Amino acid sequence: MQIKNQMRLEFLSVPENEGFARVAVSAFAVQLDPTLDILADIKTAVSEAVTNAIVHGYGERKGLVAITALMREDGLLEIAVSDQGRGIADIDQAMQPFFTTQPDKERSGMGFSVMQTFMDKIQVESILGAGTTVRMEKRLKEK
Amino acid sequence: MEWIKQRDRAEVYLEGELDHCSAQSIRRELDRVLEDQSIRHLILDMGKMSFMDSSGIGVILGRYRILAARGGTVAVRNMNAHVERIFILSGMHQIIRIL
Question: Could you give the number of structural domains in chain B?
């Protein structure tokens, strides 16, 4: 499949970068002229993935979060959000609606459910102690 | 954050973005409003909110728990379609009224 455009972004795992990350990916996606609803879906899913990397991947320590986005000629946007944090012990459990490891901090446990609902496809790869990558796809334009 | 009080009801006008980054300060401001124990009902007006993700669900649920313990309620209004989707996805509409 022909690549139309591609980008990579790397930033420190501080909460201030959640807004930066979703706006940056949204600005990139705009090139394919998606609807505002689709852009809002992407912003929300990116926000969830980046928040997970910051809160759960790194927690108290700081590290780098990387986002790569690839835009295909056929109108598909592929996004990968990666951290080199602690990893997820049980991915299936982590993806269950309302599951949270931090109920005391008023976390909703809905992050992965939001990503699943707002994107067309999501895949999570994680290695304990090495990090997590969330890959998501969204069709911005009909073929 | 602007808010008005009428008898046992507080109406709060949320602005800007509600994500994990802003959640803490918004939570603190809402809890300052709820320090007034005579407030039993909270209405969150989202008309000026440009973004919310699942962190917002946590904030709203937390305030619901505080008010439910007082026998009160939380309601939301002027949600945009996107925020409403997150709301319904998380089942929040079953305990928090959409006005």
Answer: 1
What CATH number should be reported for the domain holding residue A96? 3.30.565.10
* Among A19, A40, A41, beta carbon nearest to B21: A19
- Domain around B11: 2-98
Q: Is residue A107 annotated as part of the catalytic site, yes or no? A: yes
For A43, the domain range is 3-139
CB A57 within 8 A of CB A63: yes
- Give the tens place of pLDDT for each residue, A19-53: 999 999 999 999 999 999 999 999 999 999 999 99
pLDDT tens profile A58-101: 999 999 999 999 999 999 999 999 999 999 999 888 888 888 88
On whether any CB of chain A is under 8 Å from the CB of B59, the answer is yes
Count: domains in chain A: 1
ipTM at complex level: 0.91
Predicted model pTM? 0.94
Helix/strand/coil percent split, chain B, to 5: 45, 35, 20
The catalytic position among A5, A17, A78, A107 is: A107
Measure the CA–CA gap between B56 and B61, rounded to whole angstroms. 8
